[in-house]
Design goal:
Number of domains: 1
CATH architecture: Alpha-Beta Complex
CATH superfamily: Spore Coat Polysaccharide Biosynthesis Protein SpsA, Chain A
Strand order of the largest sheet: 5-4-1-6-8-7-9
Radius of gyration: 15 Å
CATH topology: Spore Coat Polysaccharide Biosynthesis Protein SpsA, Chain A
Number of strands: 9
């Protein structure tokens, strides 16, 4: 199956203060590179990076990686606008989309490939990453869900669709990586200390 990875990297990082969390250094490189490098090295067909806030800086942070950049001019309206921008970019040959957040530096290539394998086994299902049973990210969406994703609005992403597709959910345990995103300087400091 052809899979596109969509990395959401357009947000304003408001809770980080003056700093764009995606371009902030973490373990020697910009934070956004972790999720993107993991996706590029995985079994996905293509990797789409949705940019918006400080788009040029995010592009520079990802120099040398084989990705497709798409700009979300409406990024300030919330996460769902970036998700829709990514989905709209995909051509008809793509069977499913693995949606990742750009601020999840613990996600690895092996984890992404585990998600894809679970999607192969549970064909047509939405595959959710979990951490000790708690739902997190990334999420693998089959093409049949794309139409409903394109009708979303606000900052909640596509979580509201889980209720609609309650009978089509599969879970993959990824440990703390599925719940570790960075929104504040304190969270970044804590992650660096671990």
């Amino acid at each position: 199956m052809k899979t596109a990875a969509i990395i959401l990297a357009a947000g304003s990082s408001i809770r980080m203060g003056e700093t764009n969390k995606l371009t902030t250094e973490f373990r020697g490189k910009p934070m956004v590179r972790f999720a993107v490098e993991a996706a590029v090295a995985s079994g996905v067909t293509e990797t789409v990076v949705v940019v918006g806030h400080e788009a040029d800086s995010v592009r520079v942070s990802l120099e040398g990686l084989n990705v497709i950049f798409v700009e979300n001019a409406d990024y300030a309206s919330g996460l769902s606008s970036s998700l829709k921008t990514g989905i709209e970019t995909l051509n008809e040959s793509i069977d499913r989309a693995l949606v990742l957040l750009g601020d999840m530096p613990l996600i690895t290539t092996e984890m992404i490939d585990r998600m894809l394998t679970a999607g192969d086994a549970a064909e047509g299902k939405i595959v959710l990453a979990t951490s000790n049973g708690q739902r997190g990210n990334p999420v693998l969406w089959p093409r049949e869900c794309f139409g409903h994703i394109l009708m979303l609005s606000g900052d909640a992403g596509a979580r509201e669709l889980f209720a609609r597709y309650f009978d089509r959910l599969a879970e993959v345990e990824l440990g703390e990586a599925a719940q570790t995103d960075v929104d504040t300087p304190e969270e970044l400091s804590e992650l660096r200390d671990r």
